[in-house]
């Protein structure tokens, strides 16, 4: 549901707005976790999350194309609301997974993802027929071998990312993992430098630094909380 809402929001709002609003999932994760006694509120975490959001904003606005936006306000508002709902759903799902399973040793990760695949195969395929025959989204096979390769590679990478995300969630905490997902920003910065020899503006570097520092600080205090509990 979270992925569906995030992808749907891109139809109505800009990528920069969607990226910034999706990063609020860390706030929702801490809020939902606090309500079910899975997370604790303190000034350090709040300041770190604010720093994380500022870092994401710095990077996103730095990459924002200089084009006039003629999208109606109502359309943008729909996209922003969908992005916020996606962030909320992510926070709820993350906390529920940790709340129900609690520890990595209590769940067979391979069996879990096996059932996810079975349920998706059995329950979701009717929706493909619906959107195809109603004309909402036409279903067609990839037109070339290269597209097949890209599709299969993307499936493998997505599975690996979800597998590592779930393991990390159970080994650490939902808040740590949620903030850790934003590390794609400094990693993308490194890839630009290494592979494209592209050096971004100081604002981009500053935003990436804030993201890394926020992750380190939250991870440190989450570890202290787990030792004290």
UniProtKB/TrEMBL annotation:
The keyword Transmembrane helix applies. It holds the Pfam family UAA. One of its GO terms (cellular component) is endomembrane system. GO terms for biological process: transmembrane transport. It is found in: Endomembrane system. The chain crosses the membrane at residues 20-37, 44-62, 74-99, 111-135, 147-165, 177-195, 201-218. It is a multi-pass membrane protein. The keyword Transport applies. Keywords: Membrane, Sugar transport, Transmembrane, Transmembrane helix, Transport. It comes from the Eukaryota. This is Thiamine-repressible mitochondrial transport protein THI74.
């Amino acid at each position: 549901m979270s992925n569906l809402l995030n992808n749907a929001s891109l139809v109505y709002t800009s990528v920069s707005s969607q990226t910034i609003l999706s990063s609020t999932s860390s706030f929702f994760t801490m809020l939902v976790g606090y309500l079910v006694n899975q997370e604790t509120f303190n000034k350090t975490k709040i300041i770190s999350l604010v720093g994380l959001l500022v870092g994401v904003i710095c990077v996103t606005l730095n990459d924002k194309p200089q084009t006039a936006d003629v999208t109606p306000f109502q359309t943008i508002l729909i996209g922003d609301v969908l992005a916020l709902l996606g962030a909320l759903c992510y926070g709820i799902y993350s906390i529920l997974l940790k709340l129900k399973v609690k520890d990595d040793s209590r769940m067979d990760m391979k069996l879990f993802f096996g059932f996810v695949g079975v349920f998706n195969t059995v329950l979701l395929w009717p929706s493909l027929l619906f959107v195809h025959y109603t004309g909402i989204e036409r279903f067609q096979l990839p037109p070339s071998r290269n597209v097949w390769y890209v599709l299969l590679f993307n499936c493998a990478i997505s599975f690996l990312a979800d597998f590592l995300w779930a393991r990390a969630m159970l080994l650490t905490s939902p808040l740590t993992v949620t903030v850790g997902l934003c590390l794609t920003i400094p990693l993308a910065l490194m890839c630009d430098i290494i592979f494209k020899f592209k050096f971004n503006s100081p604002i981009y570097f500053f935003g990436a630094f804030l993201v890394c520092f926020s992750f380190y600080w939250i991870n440190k205090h989450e570890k202290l909380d787990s030792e004290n509990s």
